[in-house]
Design goal:
Secre_tail; mainly beta; Immunoglobulin-like; about 1100 residues; 4 helices; Jelly Rolls; seven-stranded antiparallel β-sheet; T9SS C-terminal target domain-containing protein; single chain
Length: about 1100
């Protein structure tokens, strides 16, 4: 069956096909690759054929899909009642009718309360198919009849689970019945590989028939079109609007509205809407738009305009129409109001009239405005000085709006009719007509005042609210002009001459010609003024002239005018360009004659509104109005600080209402930034080189900061760190550490209150220091600068700990012990310590908590027990260094000692420097136990000491024994060379004793020069032993000779004995030391390098020194 309405409509007339065709012209391959569509015309089906039969016969266009349902093919190509088509692009041919075959005719019938369905299964909405949210299109026919329940009679649905669950596809049902209509809807079907679509004629009491044709499910292809390509507007005056021109915007498959945007100088609208910079076009249910947009040219400045009107919608390519126009300047205009001033009346020559005012307005002006008075008239700007000279007004942005005051000051008598000229080149001339009559001046002395009566109206007991003025001038005077007030309530001043208000009199001296030029006299009333009417006067007088009295009247309320202000404002704090927090105070007043004027100082703002609406400048003024009477009820005045830069300011907010005493509210604010470190860094010690310490948190507090703050470090120099490698690191999160960090202020409070983390990472041994510093463009000093407090970073490092421990051997020799270490070559590189600490004690165990502390250097007392520091009570440090053999003395023969050794490192290998305080000790081994000598001693005599010392011309001999066993006696022996000895004296011993015994003897004839002494101990059984050798340098002055004298090079010193080892000292005649030398076996002293002169040569020491005067040639 072929529908008659299909035969005359070409397929391409369907709107979406136009889009597909146009898109295909530009990117046909891309479209085919990106999406596909499903289109079913049902033209292959047979009349009244079931869906199942047609599926089996392969009669569907999309035969890869699965079709099912209870609907059937239409009975013929011409449906019942020959229904015409209402939509374009129909395929023609067969359709699906939601009914069943009629058993009596070749037609169809609908059984009440029966569902009829069409199901299409196997649709792919992934990117390989239509894509998600595809567009569903179909033709729909509804037979004529009642529309009751028509909305839900025919529905469309989709399923993603094979029909277990369905989701409704909403669409707009045809409004008419008995005809075909085109339905299009943008669905929300998600991406899936097996989508089922079901159409259902829902069963009800009605037997209305529905038919469906031309099913299509396809991907959306949003597209926009605009025409014409350009609009050209005629010349248009700036500030006016051109006639409208139109563009047409068309769109298909749109997923959102179309926004039409006009460029600067153009406006758009749709329909009768107001013109604006944008217009929004809403797409219909099928995603289509076709609408006309009005465009007008509204230039704001002269010149040529060329730009584009653009149309944009989500997913569609933006399109545009070119627009152009030329803006012309408006013609200049100049007007005055009024064009004529009232007649100035009669004015005496040399006098002036009261002033009158006119207004000048100009626009689009290209030149200055010149205001020129005619003869006999003067002009001024408000609060200016009257003059007969012209006034020049400078337009602002081509505009002028200015009041000008005029007064009549004739110089000759007669009638005046003229015009104040107002001109500007390029603009029509204008002017204000003025007139007046001048009467002749008197011939004798005269005084003129204008006006002669001043009424202050209502005043309070405090005085008048306003200052009133009268003018006075005089002529032909022979004496000064004197102004005198009638009482102390009247104060006045000569405003022309300046000065303060006084009670009077004011004396004005006339010019040499007897004239007094016009003076403006300002008048005020001061309290106390009694209640009721007030009257007084100011008299202008001069000898020979008729006095002029200016009467002054008022009516006093009898009450004092008072302003009350309460509230203390704390310091305002903010950042430049940002208003501070708002504070307020309360203001009231009583018996006031005028409202209270509140004036803020510079950088501050005042307002009656907490939001400061309309306040745009600082130093502004607001008015607090009175109520219906003379009072101001309690009113809150809001204050804030708005500085343009970093500054501090203090001033007063002035609250005034004359004649009340003004009230000042002190106010202060600052926008100068501050920054500090809240807590100090605690010095870190004993951090192993090339490792990192635990971090410390330092809190940074900053106020009134807008810009980021960079925290960095200034490293102190150290000779062990010539490359200035940073020793400290900073972090914001305690995870990532760098050499600097950047803190960002809080955007609301303009403050910083957060920790930074600091850790020590030493690269050399010893102490390190850095100073924290900051930089921020908020500060006047924008360079890097110091905090000034809590900014010092200090730490000390120690060397790495040795990994190997050497074992010491200890041997005892009476009062000494020798500690030896058997270390291999290059022992430090192998892991042994660079040095060793030796500790001696009488205790057999060193407590575990008393080990040497890392980072401590122990001064050892020169290897003598008991003189060095103790690492624990009773544990003496006797040696620290790198020697492998150490002799420790100061031991007691009868005491057992224990020695403890500790390996340590403290050498900076880059510079081969041992750094004190950088020691890292290895834990100690089990202490070596050294047995002492236990009494009774195995030797016959325990010799404590033996000594020989020069005493005058003798040598004193002394020895001490701790105990003696079978001791017969002692022999003292002497030798010149230390090899051949002779006995010089003997002494009996004590036999056997455990007491200490001291022996003293004298060598009365000692040998000259170096001598050796030893002690021989002889036992009762004849056995003997010898002590260690001691030496003596003895010089007898009479036996010392030095020759030759004078000497050229070698001086021989003969001491009548061995001179080897004798010390010779050379000084000059002033006692200045020249050299000190030890004599050799040849007794020669080399003086070759000395300059010619006389020297003193001294040999020997102590009591045996001998000095000779030697001349060097």
């Amino acid at each position: 069956m072929k529908k008659s309405y299909l035969s005359t409509v070409p397929l391409i007339s369907r709107p979406w096909l136009w889009v597909v065709l146009l898109m295909g012209l530009f990117a046909p391959l891309a479209m085919q690759a990106q999406s596909m569509s499903y289109q079913e015309t049902f033209n292959g089906l047979q009349a009244r054929e079931t869906i199942t039969s047609a599926q089996a016969a392969g009669e569907f266009d999309e035969d890869q899909l699965v079709y099912s349902g209870t609907a059937i093919a239409s009975p013929g190509v011409n449906p019942n009642n020959n229904n015409p088509s209402n939509y374009a692009g129909a395929s023609g041919g067969r359709s699906i009718v939601f009914a069943e075959p009629s058993p009596t005719t070749q037609g169809v019938q609908v059984t009440a309360n029966t569902d009829y369905t069409l199901i299409i299964d196997g649709l792919n909405t992934t990117t390989a198919g239509t894509g998600a949210n595809p567009r569903l299109e179909f033709g729909l026919f509804r037979s004529a009849g009642s529309q009751t329940a028509a909305t839900n009679e025919f529905i469309a649905e989709y399923s993603l689970d094979g029909g277990a669950n369905y989701t409704n596809i909403g669409f707009t049902r045809p409004a008419a019945s008995g005809s075909w209509e085109f339905v299009a809807v943008n669905t929300t079907i998600p991406a899936a590989t097996n989508v089922r679509v079901r159409f259902t004629r829902v069963g009800n009491a009605s037997t209305r028939q529905y038919r469906l044709d031309d099913f299509m499910l396809r991907a959306l292809s949003p597209a926009l079109f605009i025409s014409p390509a350009s609009l050209i507007f005629p010349n248009t005056t700036v500030g006016t609007q051109s006639a409208a021109q139109q563009v047409t915007v068309t769109g298909t498959d749109l997923t959102g509205p179309v926004t039409v945007t006009a460029p600067s100088g153009f406006l758009v609208r749709t329909g009768s809407d107001a013109y604006a910079s944008t217009a929004v076009l809403t797409q219909d249910g099928s995603g289509g738009v076709s609408q006309q947009v009005d465009v007008v040219f509204v230039p704001t400045a002269t010149g040529s305009y060329f730009s584009q009107i653009s149309a944009a919608s989500p997913g569609a390519t933006t399109v545009a129409t070119n627009v152009a126009g030329n803006a012309t300047a408006p013609p200049p205009s100049l007007t005055v109001s009024p064009i004529a001033l009232p007649d100035f009346g009669s004015v005496q020559v040399g006098q002036v009239s009261a002033a009158q005012t006119f207004n000048i307005q100009g626009s689009n002006l290209t030149n200055n405005v010149v205001v020129t008075p005619p003869a006999g008239f003067q002009i001024r700007l408000p609060n200016g000085t009257f003059s007969s000279a012209a006034i020049t007004l400078v337009p602002s942005a081509g505009s002028v709006n200015q009041n000008v005051e005029v007064r009549f000051q004739p110089t000759v008598d007669g009638n005046y009719n003229a015009q104040v000229a107002v001109t500007s080149t390029g603009a029509p001339a204008s002017g204000v007509s003025v007139s007046g009559t001048a009467t002749p001046a008197p011939t004798g002395p005269f005084i003129v005042a204008n006006p002669t009566a001043i009424d202050f109206g209502t005043v309070s007991a405090s005085g008048s609210a306003q200052t009133l003025t009268f003018s006075v001038n005089a002529g032909n005077l022979t004496a000064p002009l004197v102004l005198t007030g009638s009482n102390n309530n009247i104060v006045f001043r000569d405003a022309t001459a300046g000065g303060s208000f006084v009670n009077g009199p004011i004396i004005i001296n006339p010019a040499p010609n007897g004239s007094v030029s016009i003076r403006n006299i300002e008048v005020q009333l001061t309290g106390p003024i009694a209640s009721g009417p007030f009257s007084g006067s100011i008299t202008a007088s001069s000898t020979g002239a008729t006095s002029v009295v200016v009467t002054i009247t008022a009516n006093s309320t009898g009450n004092n005018s008072v302003i009350n202000a309460s509230g203390n404002l704390s310091l305002f704090s903010t950042v430049p360009g940002v208003a501070s927090s708002v504070q307020s105070y309360t203001l009231s007043g009583s018996n006031l004659l005028q409202d209270i004027t509140v004036t803020a100082p510079q950088y501050f703002q005042v307002s009656l509104d907490a939001t400061f609406a309309g306040v745009t400048t600082t130093g502004n003024t607001i008015v607090v109005p009175r109520n219906s009477g003379p009072d101001v009820t309690a009113t809150t005045v809001y204050v804030r600080f708005l500085p343009p830069s970093a500054l501090s300011s203090s001033s007063l907010i002035l609250n005034s209402s004359s004649p009340a005493v003004s009230q000042g509210i002190p106010v202060a604010g600052t926008s100068e930034p501050t920054i500090q470190i809240a807590n100090a860094f605690q010095e870190v010690r004993n951090v192993v080189i090339n490792t990192t310490s635990a971090s410390q948190a330092l809190t940074i507090n900053a106020q009134r900061v807008l810009q980021p703050v960079t925290i960095s470090k200034n490293l102190s120099t150290n000779p062990l760190n010539p490359g200035n490698v940073p020793q400290f690191e900073l972090s914001l999160d305690n995870v990532t550490f760098t050499n600097s960090v950047v803190l960002t202020p809080n955007a609301t409070t303009y403050s910083i209150n957060q920790p930074i983390y600091v850790r020590y990472k030493p690269t050399y041994l010893g102490s390190a220091q850095s100073t924290l510093q900051f930089q921020s463009n908020d500060f006047a000093n924008k360079s890097v600068q110091a905090f000034g407090a809590n900014d010092l970073l200090s730490a000390r490092s120690i060397d790495i700990e040795p990994t190997l421990r050497s074992t010491a051997t200890v041997t005892r020799n009476n009062t000494t012990a020798t500690v030896s270490f058997n270390l291999p070559a290059n022992y430090a590189a192998l892991g042994y310590g660079e040095g060793r600490l030796i500790v001696a004690s009488t205790n057999s165990e060193l407590p575990a908590n008393s080990q040497p502390a890392d980072g401590n250097s122990y001064q050892t007392g020169n290897q003598t027990y008991g003189q060095g520091p103790q690492i624990a009570p009773g544990f003496f440090a006797v040696y620290s260094g790198s020697n492998q053999t150490v002799v420790v003395d100061g031991l007691d023969l009868a005491t057992t000692y224990y020695f403890y050794t500790f390996e340590y490192n403290n050498i900076d290998n880059n510079f081969n420097v041992s750094v004190i305080g950088a020691e890292n000790y290895l834990s100690p081994p089990v202490p070596n136990t050294i047995p002492g000598i236990i009494a009774p001693s195995p030797l016959p005599v325990t010799l404590v000491s033996f000594s020989a010392k020069v005493k005058g011309n003798q040598v004193a001999l002394n020895w001490v024994t701790a105990s003696e066993l079978n001791n017969k006696g002692f022999e003292v022996q002497r030798s010149r060379d230390g090899r051949s000895f002779e006995t010089i004296l003997t002494r009996e011993g004590k036999g056997t004793t455990s007491a200490t015994t001291t022996y003293n003897e004298v060598d009365k004839k000692p040998l000259n020069g170096l001598s050796y002494y030893r002690l021989k101990q002889v036992d009762l059984d004849g056995s003997s032993s010898f002590s260690s050798l001691v030496t003596v340098n003895f010089l007898n002055s009479g036996e010392v000779t030095m020759y030759p004298n004078p000497v050229q090079d070698q001086l021989t010193i003969d001491v009548a004995g061995s001179a080897e080892g004798v010390t010779a000292v050379i000084t000059d005649m002033t006692g200045r030391l020249i050299s000190t030398r030890k004599l050799g076996a040849d007794s020669k002293l080399d003086m070759t390098n000395l300059q010619a002169g006389t020297y003193l040569v001294t040999v020997g020491e102590g009591d045996a020194k001998v000095t000779r005067r030697i001349v060097k040639k």
